[in-house]
Design brief:
Blueprint lengths: L1 H15 L1 E4 L10 E3 L5 E5 L9 E5 L7 E5 L11 E6 L5 E5 L6 E9 L2 E12 L2 E7 L2 E6 L12 E9 L5 E2 L9 E7 L8 E7 L4 E6 L4 E7 L5 E9 L7 E6 L5 E5 L4 E5 L5 E6 L5 E7 L2 E6 L4 E6 L3
Parallel strand pairs: 9-13
Antiparallel strand pairs: 1-25, 2-3, 3-4, 4-5, 6-7, 7-8, 8-9, 10-11, 11-12, 12-14, 15-16, 16-17, 17-18, 19-20, 20-21, 21-22, 23-24, 24-25
Length: 313
């Protein structure tokens, strides 16, 4: 009987995965990336402010996540809200500090002996710093809302920004006219307002993927030698609540994964363009996917857990 139960549990895990509980100091897991040692790194904005915004690490699926550090707070607000995160080639960590009142920051953190050695701002004055990826000496960051755009049609504007890794304290105007804004979009859905949100990059091909949360669009953007977008192609347009692309990630085969927050799903666009549902249901407002150790790891922004889903090809 015990052997039969163990076999059944193993089969269930192989098909559905497992849930990892974050520590009590993490109330809203969000952005994720992988460090040089293969550890899963998780950002927690902790938007209820009962805990400081922090970054956590997980060595393996069989261990518990541990807090790595608290993100240095924004001087104006007194707290930090780390969302999108990514590593650069020298082990530096880039963090989107999502603040209100145009106080957001894109931070660059360096480390010594596993502790923060420096914290510098790549960009400041951001309306809605959300997702970020490093590609070929540049940082591509989404702003799901550009409040500097005043509209009268109930639509909302969003943008994809590009910064050099050497930039410091760049102040933006939060409109598509900003020289750092390389792509912008308009969300027409009056009920779901967010725009460009997640971002994934294929550095070898100079391709950026980003999704419009409210309108259910996923864009494939081709960059030129100067890193700016020279071609845009809409590869998904679901509309409504059927697909609300929040975070995005790529696997080594070029398949694009989507955390569909309102659709309560994880989805995949294969490298040859087929749209597939990886898993439907069992999430709590899934916000960010990350491919790690053969699993699709999805952060439950509406809960305090991560879902690890085995991926079959």
């Amino acid at each position: 009987m015990k052997i039969t139960l163990l076999i059944a549990c193993a089969a269930a895990f192989a098909a559905y995965g497992k849930t990892i509980q974050m520590p009590r100091s993490c109330t809203t897991p969000d952005g994720m990336c992988i460090d040089a040692k293969g550890r899963l790194v998780i950002a927690a904005p902790n938007n209820d402010h009962t805990q400081p915004g922090a970054v956590f690490r997980l060595r393996s699926p069989d261990e518990e996540p541990l807090k790595w550090f608290d993100v240095p707070p924004c001087p104006e607000s007194g707290y930090a809200s780390p969302m999108g995160i990514c590593f650069g080639p020298k082990g530096e960590l880039y963090v989107c500090d999502n603040q209100k009142n145009s106080q957001g920051r894109l931070l660059r953190l360096t480390f010594k002996d596993d502790r923060i050695a420096s914290c510098e701002a790549i960009a400041v004055g951001l309306d809605n710093a959300n997702g970020v990826k490093y590609m070929n000496g540049r940082l591509y960051m989404t702003q799901a809302f550009l409040y500097g755009v005043k509209r009268g049609d109930r639509a909302s504007s969003s943008g994809l920004y590009m910064f050099s890794e050497n930039d410091r304290n760049v102040r933006v105007g939060n409109t598509p006219a900003d020289p750092q804004c390389v792509f912008s979009d308009v969300t027409r859905n009056p009920e779901i307002r967010g725009g460009l949100n997640g971002v994934a990059v294929d550095a070898a091909k100079g391709i950026i993927y980003t999704g419009n949360y409210g309108d259910g669009r996923v864009w494939k953007l081709t960059t030129g030698a100067d890193g700016r977008v020279v071609k845009s192609e809409e590869i998904v347009h679901a509309g409504g609540e059927s697909v609300t692309p929040d975070g995005l990630c790529l696997d080594v085969f070029g398949n694009l994964y989507i955390a569909d927050m309102r659709g309560d799903a994880a989805e995949r666009i294969t490298s040859y363009g087929k749209f597939e549902v990886v898993r439907k249901g069992g999430f709590e407002r899934p916000s960010e996917p990350c491919f790690w150790k053969g699993f699709l790891c999805v952060a439950n922004y509406g809960g305090t857990t991560l879902e690890l889903i085995p991926i079959a090809y």
